[in-house]
Design brief:
It is a single chain. With 62 residues, the protein is an alpha+beta fold. The chain has 1 helix and 2 strands, in the order ββα. It has one domain. 29% of the residues lie in helices and 31% in strands. Strands 1-2 form a two-stranded antiparallel ribbon. A hairpin with a 2-residue loop joins strand 1 and strand 2.
């Protein structure tokens, strides 16, 4: 994969059951731009569907 892995993911948990947290990955299945776009689109759609009741953490490395 040319040294790059496109992985977007989310930890889903219910406040009443924090011990049941699960990681939901959205990753590119190949190295073509269409695969990278599909991974990002999948993650974006998941986020947009849940943004009203979510806490979003963003890590920026400069």
């Amino acid at each position: 994969m040319r040294g790059v892995v496109y992985l977007h993911g989310f930890v889903k948990r219910e406040y009443a059951r924090s011990d049941m947290a699960i990681f939901l990955p959205h990753f590119a299945v190949g190295i073509e731009p269409i695969h990278e776009e599909a991974a990002f689109r999948s993650a974006w759609e998941y986020l947009n569907a849940r943004v009203q009741d979510s806490t979003i953490y963003y890590i920026r490395e400069d």
